[in-house]
Specification:
By secondary structure, this protein is mostly helical. The chain is 81% helix and 0% strand. It starts with a helix and ends with a helix.
């Protein structure tokens, strides 16, 4: 098992563009969500189904992770770019790949913090150009130099991790498949996905809305033998959400109407008293 120079280069370039915001505002979403990075890896390794199944498992652990100040406790794009090739090369289960993604993503977060340090150096140029009123210099220091610094930082790291590290990790895991270490990876990976779902509920969930989460969960369990696709679930969810919003708006309108009626009646009573 090996990763070619071309494969490592393509994935490293993709991650460098995402982490350095070389693709515009969309790179924020690409950085926080592993799905597109997993698709790129699947295309590069010509195994999109396995790559996307593995990426979906990795996505679960990042569902409830948020980034105060733009800093993530773990970098999903970097984690996916390394863990998915390892899973594809080693024919790993998605849960085992999740356990590989976590430490890699943690290392990626330290690398992103070092990028902040590089930007502080570039900021000195920005201050100088701002004082001088040099618009071309500001374009250089605000847009071009941070992008080049990000690419020069992330590309070598990702290339080395993919070209030298991914095959070694895949070989080790494949040679120990079925052993205690492999079992531990699967157990930890499955638990991390549950943590991600729990974080999602904690961050965006309200007690009054938990019933919808439970409804979706038990509906998925009950209808599993029917092999219903995610598109069908999405349509049903949209219909339920529309009904809920419609009922809520109708209730709010009725309350407002009754309030106006009571207010008018009170005003009429005051006028009668006069």
């Amino acid at each position: 098992m090996h990763v070619t120079v071309l494969q490592a280069s393509i994935i490293a370039i993709w991650v460098a563009l995402v982490m350095s915001r070389g693709l515009g505002g969309a790179t924020l979403t690409l950085r926080f969500s592993p799905m597109m990075t997993g698709l790129v890896v699947g295309v590069v390794f010509n195994d999109i189904p396995h790559a996307m199944v593995t990426t979906a498992a990795i996505q679960l652990i990042y569902m409830g992770v948020f980034s105060p100040g733009g800093q993530m406790p773990s970098e999903p794009a970097i984690a996916t770019a390394v863990a998915v090739p390892v899973a594809v090369l080693g024919k790993m289960e998605p849960t085992a790949a999740v356990a590989v993604a976590v430490p890699v993503g943690l290392l990626g977060s330290y690398l992103y913090q070092f990028r902040f340090f590089l930007n502080t150096i570039i900021m000195k140029l920005t201050e100088k150009y701002a004082v001088d009123g040099n618009s071309h210099g500001l374009t250089l220091s605000v847009i071009i130099l941070p992008f080049l610094a990000g690419v020069m930082l992330f590309f070598p790291f990702m290339f080395a991790a993919l070209y030298f590290g991914a095959p070694v990790i895949a070989d080790i895991i494949k040679s120990n498949a079925g052993g205690l270490a492999f079992h531990i990876l699967n157990v930890i990976g499955g638990g991390l996905a549950a943590v991600g779902i729990a974080l999602t509920i904690y961050v965006i969930g309200k007690r009054s809305y938990i019933v919808f989460f439970l409804l979706a969960y038990f509906a998925a369990v009950v209808t599993k033998p029917l092999s219903i696709t995610m598109v069908t679930y999405a349509i049903l969810g949209a219909i339920i959400a529309f009904i809920f919003v419609l009922a809520k708006n109708e209730a709010a309108g009725a309350i407002a109407k009754n309030g106006n009626t009571n207010s008018n009646n009170a005003s009429q009573a005051d006028d009668d008293d006069y």
